[in-house]
Amino acid sequence: MAEQARAHGFAVLAEYMLIYDPRTATYGYYARTSRDVSQRWGITRVSIDGYTGEMTGLWLPTGAAAGDTIRTWIPTLHMAARWGWPMQAAVSLLGLVVVMLSLTGWMIWLRKRRARRAVCMHRS
User: Fold this and answer.
1) Torsion over CA: 113, 116, 122, 124 (sign)
2) Are residues 124 and 101 in the same domain?
3) Tell me: the pLDDT tens digits for 7-47?
4) Are 35 and 44 in contact (CB under 8 A)?
5) Residues paired with 58 in a beta bridge
6) Do both 78 and 88 map to the same domain?
7) For the chain, where are the E strands, in sequence order?
8) Out of 48, 64, 84, 104, which residue is the most buried by the measure of CB atoms under 10 Å away?
9) Structure pTM?
């Protein structure tokens, strides 16, 4: 990872995980780097052949392909993993607004339903 960091101009901030996929006989070495958007986890990945130990691939979360950058930002924003507690508070507040709007919408629907039933009962 350090070699790739030098070659591609990013900094390795912390090791994240090493996993083995027996279906493809490859190791995935993940690290949190300066290319990662999240402040909680790292998804910069180096793939290593499980038999030869040779590097077979590098995946950078930002800066390489626009689609990968978007794919990285969406879950990071969804889980409020960027900009610390202000972002977490904003996401929590937004969740409460959604609940409030859902409840008020349900209450309005219920009142209209009762009113329609009362009109139908009165006509009969």
Assistant:
1) negative
2) yes
3) 988 999 988 899 999 999 999 999 998 888 877 778 899 99
4) yes
5) 46
6) no
7) 12-21, 26-33, 44-49, 55-59
8) 48
9) 0.61
